[in-house]
Specification:
Shape: globular
CATH class: Alpha Beta
Distance between the termini: 51 Å
Order of helices and strands: EEEHEEHHHEEEEHHHH
Radius of gyration: 18 Å
CATH superfamily: Aminoglycoside phosphotransferase (APH), C-terminal lobe
Number of strands: 9
CATH topology: Aminoglycoside 3'-phosphotransferase, Chain: A, domain 2
Strand order of the largest sheet: 1-2-3-5-4
Largest sheet: 5 strands, antiparallel
Number of domains: 1
Number of helices: 8
Structural class: alpha+beta
Strand content: 15-25%
Helix content: 40-55%
CATH architecture: Alpha-Beta Complex
């Protein structure tokens, strides 16, 4: 029997790999429902769904490698990053799904969530006040009107696979839905700011870089405490806290 690899595991969900099969176990069936619906609609390569038996979703492995990971070095040529940008643009140009995604939260709700999180980060001594205050100010740029697009909602660099300059698959669609397209671009380049120009060359349209920077700060502020509480290290080199420090 093939060795079982734990890809990720915390109190909300876990992903295991057995040979060429990934088993996703999620306590919230709505997330799995969203993942399956989104993969059936998007005009980009996605994993094949092999079977589904709640609370488990089995999907096939896809060929290729990622362009890096958060906290690690970025890899791939400028052309590969441009190819990823073109695939993201194809997603954003697709017909809108019927539901809101993670990137579709209202400005008011997002600002309230951010304010509450910033207070906890300071009150609990997780981050220094000046770092939180500066990044809260930078995050303001993300609070503006935007045209909804079909967004992935958790488009981490580790979720897009390529062979050369061909995107072979995009995984983890549980947060997909209508949302702000610049959230996807910011999430993909989090910790790899120097590759943003290459990504945008393939994306094919100008974007407001202040909004991208705003999303870098906003996303990092919102996840630092959760990551620390679930066994991850946002203080590791190149990760979320370093992203926040870069704004200083």
């Amino acid at each position: 029997m093939d060795e079982i690899q734990v890809v990720v595991a915390h109190s909300e969900r876990a992903t295991l790999r057995v040979g060429d099969v990934f088993l996703k176990v999620d306590a919230d069936q709505a997330r799995i429902d969203t993942e399956v619906r989104a993969m059936a609609l998007v005009p980009v390569p996605t994993p094949e769904v092999l079977w589904r038996k709640p609370p488990v979703l089995a999907i096939a492995a896809i060929p290729g490698t990622t362009l890096g990971r958060l906290g690690g070095p970025a890899t791939g040529s400028p052309a590969a990053w441009a190819a990823a940008g073109a695939a993201i643009r194809a997603l954003h140009d697709a017909p809108l799904p019927a539901w809101q995604g993670r990137a579709g939260r209202s400005v008011g709700a997002l600002a309230a969530e951010l304010d509450g999180e910033c207070e906890l980060l300071v009150a609990n001594g997780i981050l220094p006040t000046d770092l939180v205050t500066r990044n809260r100010r930078v995050a303001e740029a993300a609070f503006r009107p935007w045209t909804p697009a079909f967004t992935h909602g958790d488009l981490q660099i580790a979720h897009v696979f390529l062979e050369g300059t061909e995107v072979t698959g995009i995984i983890d669609w549980s947060e997909a839905g209508q949302g702000d397209p610049l959230y996807d671009l910011a999430t993909f380049t989090l910790g790899h700011e120097d590759r943003l120009d290459d990504l945008l060359a393939g994306y094919g349209t100008a974007v407001d870089l202040d909004v991208i920077r705003g999303w870098w700060s906003l996303r990092s502020l919102l996840v630092v405490r959760w990551l620390a509480e679930h066994g991850f290290d946002p203080f590791a080199p190149g990760c979320e806290v370093d992203v926040l420090r870069a704004r200083m």
